[in-house]
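Thread: Modeling a multi-component assembly for a lab meeting

Hi all, long-time lurker, first post. My supervisor asked me to bring a structural picture of a complex we are working on to next week's group meeting, and I have zero experience with this. I have the sequence lines for every component (360 residues in total). Could someone generate the structure of the whole assembly? Inputs are pasted exactly as I received them:
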Amino acid sequence: MLGALTLLLVFQLIGEVLAQLFALPIPGPVIGMALLFAALALRGGPSPELRDTAQNLLQHLSLLFVPAGVGVMLHFNRIGDEWLPLAASLVGSTVLTIAVTALVLRALARRAEGGK
Amino acid sequence: MRTPAQLAEIWVYLSASPLLGLTVTLLAYQGAWWLYRRAHFHPLANPVMLAVAVLVLLLQLTGTPYQTYFDGAQFVHFLLGPATVALAIPLYTQLPKLRAMAFPLLAALVAGSLTATVSAVAIGKLFGASEASLLSLAPKSVTTPIAMGIAERIGGLPSLTAVLVISTGILGAIGARFIYQALGIADHAVRGFAVGVASHGIGTARAFQVSEQAGAFSGLAMGLNALLTALLVPLLIPFLKNWL
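Re: Modeling a multi-component assembly
Sure thing. I ran the full set together rather than chain by chain. Output:
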């Protein structure tokens, strides 16, 4: 648990340093994820300890968004003025994005499978 | 027994320490999780939405400023970093499927990312949103720190973008199942990837509650879309401004 958590933080730290060093538009943790993925592919998979720790963290990923979500309360006034266009845009765009991504992926994945 | 004045002193003491913000966050989430489980993990009982609603109500009723609350809740918030790194592990277990689907995944990513930005701005414009709001809407499908950075670069309001990002996440986590049912999409890799493109980490959290495969592909989509949107939106905005 402790070793695995340290490893995750080390990869995050490397990601943050690289992001700052090269002024990358991607956040450090996402770079850390890519690097850890590459390391796992080279090494042939995670240790059972790392696997368990990741599973525990990700099982309650929802919890980690709660503090930022409560920040909604700071913007009640601005949202109140433009609630209709904002709500329409969010709902419409989210539905369209999920539908388009899923349909394109399904169509192309089927064709890739059929071509073999 | 304490007198009311002494109780008020305890409140003053507690409300100034991080302990309270952290504890109420965990309590609210566990209450939300309990409901979510009782609802058989139905998407409409989304635990992020329920916990946020309870906490906002609580802070409003007690007149507690968000900053005071966040002093405690930041310990939970901090774990987002290592959790994002940890997404590499489920992704690794999906490596064979990932290889087989590499091209379709990239094509779907580009299609989804363009749809997210263009449709958000177009629908907002159609309903008469102000220009600052339109620019804040453009990066709404990617994870908060990137979306805020993009909004700042193109002249939106980063703090409004943060709220729009969280709302998009919750909407996608709630709505995805109904869209997949309507379209007849059953593959968990496809389901996870699409919700990850549209609804970043909150969609990914929901996907992990459905299956590990859905979660892994959602996490991948979230990471890739963060990268693509950061590159694409600043290029797209001048065209969108002319066109609208």
